Amino acid sequence: MGKIVLNLDKVMTERKVSLNQLSEQVGITNVNLSKIKNNHVTALRFSTLEALCRVLHCQPGDLLSYEPDP
C-alpha cells in the first residue's frame, strides 16, 4: 500500500511564500500549517485544500502526490 505525500513545501518555495504569509491568508494557525507542510497530518479538509489552492494559485494535484510502496 502506498501513501499520499503533501508537496506544500515545494509549492511554497516556488511561489516564494512564507509560512507566516500563507497561514494568515489561508486562515489557519502556523502550527497546523507547519504540520501540513511537513507531512505530519493524516487528514486534510477540502476547505483547507481549497484555500491553499486559491492562495497559491495552483491545483490540488500540485500539492498532492501518490508514492506506491516499492
What would you note in describing this structure?
It is a single chain. Helices cover 56% and strands 11% of the residues. The chain has helices spanning 8-15, 19-26, 30-37, 46-56, 60-63, and strands at 3-6, 64-67. The mean pLDDT is 96. It has a single domain, classed as lambda repressor-like DNA-binding domains (434 Repressor (Amino-terminal Domain)). By secondary structure, it is mainly α. The protein is globular. It is built from five helices and two strands; from the N terminus they run E-H-H-H-H-H-E.
Key features of this structure:
70 residues, two-stranded antiparallel ribbon, 5 helices, 434 Repressor (Amino-terminal Domain), mainly alpha
Order of helices and strands: EHHHHHE
N-to-C CA distance: 9 Å
How many DSSP E strands? 2
Structural Rg: 12 Å
The number of helical runs is 5
Overall body shape = globular
Could you tell me the CATH topology label: 434 Repressor (Amino-terminal Domain)
- Tally of individual domains: 1
Determine and state the CATH class. Answer: Mainly Alpha
Average of the residue pLDDT scores: 96
Largest sheet: 2 strands, antiparallel
Q: In terms of structural class, how would the helical and strand content be classed?
A: mainly alpha
- Kindly estimate the percentage of residues that lie in beta strands according to DSSP: 5-15%
